[in-house]
Amino acid sequence: MDAQYVDNFLMANSKYFESHQLSFVRERLLALDDSKKFQVQSLQFKDPTMMLIISVIVGGIGIDRFLVGDVGLGVAKLLTCGGLGIWTIIDWFLIMGVAKQRNLENFNRTIL
Q: What stretches pass through the bilayer (predicted)?
């Protein structure tokens, strides 16, 4: 892909990845052929800020973990009422990083 497209993609989607992941994403996009351009454009990323808001509001019943794809942890969090609240508070600090990691995994699955 051309560098202009890659730069535009990164400007529009940099909030969905950790800062140290952006160079990896850039390298992968530059090495990608143009036939995968549509697949990359159609990717749906989880918004880390929205995941934090969801975690604060309904994280005690595991909705945040279900949304990032951690079904087992979501069920466990649901059954324990967020680990009696402790797990819920810990997830307020972790859920944004988990969402960004899932976005990178989704990106890698798409471009392979």
A: 49-68, 74-99
